[in-house]
Design a protein that fits this description.
Helix content is 65%, strand content 13%. It is an alpha+beta fold. It folds into 2 domains: 4-154, no CATH class; 194-350, Histidine kinase-like ATPase, C-terminal domain (Heat Shock Protein 90). The protein starts with a helix and ends with a strand.
């Protein structure tokens, strides 16, 4: 079924083309009417020349330009242009004989001066063809530019959706891991029937509230993220008891700073999960400071040897890097270093 929009477009196109050829007809009449008062002769001659001009013009703009020139088939375009010029030239000469035979009764002097020379006829016809062809090329260029712009927008939209899906997938990987660690800690306290279990449940409730209602937001307050880290560390302190030595510093953190949620907690989790007790202590040193519109975050944990849990640590670190690349492309710097005693991470985030 033909849509109304298509019908309106076609009708508009026909009207515009009709107006164009009416204007050309009057231009021919004015041009060929120079130095003559025989308007009937000039108008009839112009009316005969219009179909020749129309045929040549539409051959060029509807066939030669789109099929050969725009397809970069330049040799064929030149060849068929030559054919078109030859055929149209024959019809232009025929129009000259039409004026001589039928309009001036074989009296050469009776012809309008501008219609006696084939050169003037060629100039008139091919000038119109040139103008129409130039307009057609501009129109094709505009359509091509619009189509490319629309295609780029669709590609960007598809890439954005893909990145959003990948980001959601990475978040889903973080959530189970986080809950598993926390529930394991609670399970240990429940087995011991510790008096700290209710307090631990309350902290877990706060963490779950953050996890369920804040993590899906594009941005959260940096203070909320820090409170989330503090709650997590408090839970781990209960689990490790006297075997944990942790030093945390959060300096110069403005209230207005917002970041993507769950950016720093994976590093904290990894420190507890992969850190090892050395000299009867699991030692973790964490620092966050805001300087010149940048967040400088560092954390290191004690280890016993260089190769401990390299594979698991690598998987987690890969996911973190992917998430940072999606959220802060070219606006972060992540450094990971190891030695025999420490596993260190430094993250600089440009806001």
């Amino acid at each position: 079924m033909i849509s109304q929009e298509f019908i309106v477009k076609k009708v508009t196109q026909i009207v515009l083309h009709t107006i164009f050829w009416i204007v050309v007809l009057f231009c021919y009449t004015y041009f060929f009417g120079h130095n003559t008062n025989n308007i009937n002769y000039v108008f009839s001659f112009s009316l005969f020349l219009i179909p020749v001009t129309m045929g040549t013009t539409y051959t060029v703009i509807n066939l030669l330009i789109p099929k050969y020139l725009l397809q970069e088939k330049y040799f064929l375009f030149i060849v068929y242009c030559i054919y078109t010029v030859i055929i149209s030239a024959l019809f232009i000469i025929l129009s000259l004989f039409y004026g001589l035979i039928f309009l001036s009764s074989l009296k050469f002097a009776g012809m309008a001066p501008m219609t006696r020379s084939p050169l003037f006829l060629f100039v008139a016809v091919y000038f119109v063809v040139f103008i129409a062809s130039a307009f057609s090329l501009v129109q094709h260029n505009y359509k091509s530019t619009s189509a490319n712009h629309e295609l780029r927008n669709k590609i960007l939209e598809a890439q954005l959706k893909l990145k959003e899906q990948e980001l959601q997938y990475l978040k889903m990987q973080i959530h189970p891991h986080f809950l598993f660690n926390t529930l394991n800690t609670m399970y240990g306290f429940a087995l011991k029937k510790s008096e700290q279990t209710p307090e631990m449940i309350l902290m877990l409730s706060n963490l779950l509230d953050y996890l369920l209602y804040q993590v899906d937001k594009p941005l959260v307050s940096l203070h909320e993220e820090i409170n989330h880290i503090k709650d997590y560390v408090a839970l781990e302190k209960m689990r490790f008891s006297d075997t944990l030595k942790i030093d945390m510093k959060f300096e110069n953190i403005p209230d207005t700073i917002q970041i993507a949620p769950m950016l720093f907690i994976p590093f904290v989790e990894n420190s507890f999960k992969h850190g090892q007790i050395r000299n009867q202590k699991l030692t973790i040193v964490m620092k966050m400071i805001y300087i010149n519109n940048e967040i400088h975050f560092s954390i290191k944990n004690s280890i016993l040897n260089f190769s401990t849990d390299n594979h698991e640590y690598g998987i987690g670190l890969t996911n973190i890097k992917k998430r940072l690349s999606l959220l802060y492309p070219d606006n972060y710097k992540l450094e990971v270093t190891k030695n025999k005693e420490w596993y260190s991470v430094i993250l600089i985030l440009k806001l």
